Amino acid sequence: MLIDAKQQYDSQGFCVMPQRLSDAMLAQVRESISEISGMTRPEVVYEKDGKTVRALHGCHRFDDVCADLVRLPLFVELAESILGEEVYVYQFKVNIKNAVDGERWPWHQDYAFWSIEDGMPADRAMNIAINLDDVYDWNGPLQVLAGTHLLGLIPSPDHGATSGGDWRDHVSADLTYTVGDQEVEELGKRHELHRLTGPAGTISAFHPNIVHSSARNTSSDRRTILYITYNAVSNSPRHAHRPHFLVDPITTAVRKLDQPLALTPA
Ligand code: SIN
Ligand code: MN
Questions:
Q1: CA separation (Å) from 27 to 30, 34, 61, 125, 141?
Q2: Ligand 1 atom closest to residue 142's alpha carbon, by position in its atom list
Q3: Which atom in ligand 1 lies closest to the alpha carbon of residue 127?
Q4: Cα distance from N-terminal residue to C-terminal residue, the chain
Q5: Ligand 1: which atom is nearest the Cα of residue 95?
Q6: Sorting pLDDT into bands at 50, 70 and 90, what band is 123?
Q7: Per-residue pLDDT tens over the stretch 233-252
Q8: Which residue from 30, 101, 131, 161 lies 20 to 30 Å from 55 (Cα-Cα)?
């Protein structure tokens, strides 16, 4: 099973898992996320209006349910099999795309941020994405250009920007490091677009160099996706200066925690 997922990941830059979070586990995670959204703390990021919650960061560092989630053997084993060594949690975030006026995420590659801002030596990290709401074509799903993970970092004028700017520009709708529209149009001729849709609980994984984005959500359905980024233990950042809730300074291998009721067949 992990072999199939790894094969798809290696060739396409993403995979969708045959398991999903169980209803019980999903309910626990959603409850935690809803509680954290109402807290006043730096990990909670708002849209430009200053009141709509856009994202939560680093929840595995202070919330027990999220701390258990990142230790699910399926996630850790998938990351270890893809990265070929022990892994730790580099980033944890929840992107809440509000119904009706949910903001977009421009086309980008995650590794641009991790390499330029944090000095991550190689693209030897991977993202797990868990849909916490039902995600459809029309409520701003994550969309990826299959196979672009093999292109390395695509040169962009943005990449000359000096690191050390405001970390909020790495998590806003005006991202610091993007892939330009013209480049995306060219890439779109050779790389198939996939939308990572699926009911709440759907689990997928994607590569740090895959070109991806998500559109505005003008539908009446909120779209929430939780992302866990695992990094190879030997690939820790060389000059991380961003807040600890964005780049976890604890780089010791994550310990798996068997949670037999956490998953169910998709
Ligand atoms: C991301 O690319 O990091 C997030 C995109 C999204 O949640 O739509
Ligand atoms: Mn991204």
A1: 5, 10, 20, 28, 21
A2: 8
A3: 3
A4: 13
A5: 7
A6: very high
A7: 999 998 878 999 999 999 99
A8: 161
Helix (H) or strand (E) holding 81, with range, is helix 73-83
Cα separation of 257 and 68, whole Å?
Answer: 7
**Picking from 148-162, 215-229, 246-260, which range would have the lowest pLDDT averaged per residue?**
148-162
Query: Running DSSP on this structure, what letter comes out for residue 51?
Result: S
The DSSP bridge partners found for residue 204 are 16, 129
Distance CA 72, CA 54 (A): 26
Per-residue pLDDT tens digits for 91-102: 999 999 999 988
* Residue from 114, 225, 228, 247 to probe ligand 1 pocket by mutation (most atoms less than 8 Å from CB): 225
Nearest residue to 92 (alpha-carbon basis) of 237, 257, 226: 226
CA distances from 214 to 95, 155, 179 (A): 11, 21, 13
> How would you write 216-235 as a 3-class SS string?
CECCCCCEEEEEEEEEEHHH
